[in-house]
Design a protein that fits this description.
It comes from Coemansia javaensis. The structure is a single chain. This protein is mainly alpha-helical. It has a domain of 234 residues: Glycosyltransferase. The protein contains 16 helices and 17 strands. It is globular. It binds 2-acetamido-2-deoxy-beta-D-glucopyranose (NAG) (2 copies).
């Protein structure tokens, strides 16, 4: 996810992309291309435009993915959804594979987030997840995903606490200026030629584990284990996680030395951290502290509950995979131990009793008894707990939490004539994130609710044929980010899931 205050960086990055594309030979900047509709248009009520870039300008081509588009759209009756799905499902492959080196034993893939020429750990994992079911039948697609696993390992080994990275120097792509380098005070220090943003977010760790284990489960291949960076990166992350469970104060009342700090001169509260960059004090709970949320906004209480839940699930999957493939048994044990401690911490310290909704998962906690009641549209979110695999959808505490998150009792839930759902402090008041609408559908077993989510998503495209970061509750033409690949991937995943569960729904 990007931060909207980094507008200077955004403009720089867009300009850099445009310059590179032009040098490659007349391919339009996709930031510009995605901001205006292109024909032909669908024959439905919304006249959905065709938003795929010209074939010669697509960044990765896959006959398998074209066949999936054919198969899925031919099972639909809604002409608008046929066109919309054909735009969004391949969007990551069409537009974001900035660099892919498949020349050696270990492939590498640098995947940009969309309108910023940098790779977010979380976004890049989610951008590729919808293609994994087809990777076993398509070696080139599998190597693209393996390349991302290897790339993320190299990035996190280089700087364990980054959320977004620059293209590797050997790609020949220029690093992007993010405009915030001058006023930062970050511990440990980082190199801005390799790190695009140094915000420490624990869901980056979980996303790094997730892409590896999901790739292995889909293909049976675990070649990343023998690439140079993966085992060292996992080792370094597990020992950092252990340190990040530590309380702020030692048992005899001294200040513990923090592992990470982030502070910055800014007029935006969510762009820096409390306590000169350490974050607010915490007690030991088993949970792991984080300085920033998946929105790249600062946490208020450092134990971000949905991110800890996600980390517990993915550490468990990591441990199980390592045991099954017979690699690094000590790492497998440590991953499973940490998973159990974090899970216990979430269940003991990550819930509270709400006057109207009963026992709910809270968004953030500190181990002293304080907690923050809200949900944010960015994943991992409380709404996504069953999607992540932390609880079954029928779990009572989850169902209470879901009711709260989807009601005015969530301070970041908005409703209007155009769209209703969860938004984020990241984009401000009265804006709903289509991604949260897709997550509501993915975690619902009601055909009516799923259909309602699909309808809102269809109208949220505002005639531009792609999903946006946030849209105004009264008017989807007031939106942020014309080119946001993660959202396109997640909504496409929801469409495939909805059609499998409710044939004929669109
Ligand atoms: C598309 O559908 C055909 C016919 O059902 C099937 O044989 C093929 O495997 C499908 N292709 C993909 C990529 O799902
Ligand atoms: C890195 O930071 C320096 C200042 O410390 C700045 O001059 C330079 O432009 C930055 N480079 C990038 C790629 O952001």
């Amino acid at each position: 996810m990007r931060c909207s205050v980094v507008l200077a960086g955004l403009a720089w990055a867009a300009a850099a992309t445009a310059a590179r594309r032009a040098a490659d030979g007349e391919c339009p900047s996709y930031t510009d291309y995605s901001s205006v509709p292109h024909g032909p248009y669908s024959s439905g009520e919304y006249r959905v435009p065709s938003m795929r870039p010209p074939a010669r300008c697509r960044t990765f081509r896959s006959a398998t993915v074209e066949a999936v588009i054919q198969n899925v759209t031919s099972a639909m009756h809604d002409p608008d959804w046929k066109q919309l799905f054909a735009n969004i499902f391949p969007n990551t492959l069409d537009t974001t594979v900035a660099w892919h080196d498949d020349s050696g034993r270990d492939p590498y893939t640098f995947l940009i987030t969309g309108d910023i020429t940098a790779q977010w750990i979380r976004d890049s994992t989610n951008q590729l997840l919808p293609y994994l079911p087809y990777a076993a039948q398509d070696t080139a697609l599998a190597r693209l995903v393996l390349g991302l696993v290897n790339m993320q390992a190299e990035e996190l080994l280089g700087y364990t606490f980054g959320n977004a990275f620059q293209p590797p120097p050997r790609s020949g792509l220029a690093p992007s200026e993010n405009g915030i380098a001058l006023d930062l005070d970050v511990v440990p220090p980082f190199n801005n030629n390799t790190v695009f943003e140094a915000k420490f977010e624990i869901d980056s760790f979980a996303s790094f584990f997730q892409i590896a284990t999901a790739y292995w489960r889909a293909t049976g291949d675990h070649a990343f284990v023998s690439a140079p960076a993966w085992v060292p990166a996992v080792t370094s992350i597990l020992s950092s996680i252990r340190r990040l469970q530590e309380p702020t104060y030692t048992a005899d009342g001294r200040l513990n030395k923090p592992l990470v700090e982030y502070s910055r001169l800014t007029d935006t509260a969510t762009e820096t951290q409390f306590g000169g960059g350490r974050g607010n004090p915490v007690r030991y709970t088993g949970m792991v502290r984080t300085l920033f949320r998946p929105s790249d906004d600062a946490t208020i209480f450092p134990f971000l509950v949905p991110a800890n839940a996600f980390l517990a699930v993915e550490l468990g999957r990591l441990g199980a995979m390592l045991r099954e493939i017979g690699v690094a048994p000590a790492l497998a044990r440590e991953a499973e131990l940490l998973a159990a401690e974090i899970r216990r911490g979430v269940l003991e310290f990550g819930t509270a009793v709400h006057p109207r909704h009963g026992r709910v998962f809270v968004y953030e906690a500190d181990g002293y008894g304080s907690s923050l009641v809200m949900d944010d549209a960015n994943g991992p979110a409380l709404l996504s707990l069953p999607y992540l695999g932390f609880v079954p959808a029928g779990d009572e505490t989850y169902q209470n939490t879901r009711r709260l998150a989807l009601s005015p009792d969530n301070p970041w839930h908005f409703s209007g004539p155009a769209i209703t759902g969860v938004g984020s402090p990241h984009t401000g008041y009265m804006k709903v994130w289509p991604m949260a609408v897709a997550m509501r559908g993915l975690t619902s077993d009601s055909a009516d609710e799923v259909a309602e989510c699909l309808d809102m998503l269809k109208s949220s495209a505002a005639g531009l044929g792609l999903m946006h970061e946030s849209v105004g509750v009264a008017d989807p033409a007031i939106y942020t980010r014309s080119w946001f690949a993660w959202c396109n991937s997640l909504v496409a995943q929801f469409v495939v899931d909805a059609m499998a569960r409710f044939p004929g729904i669109i």
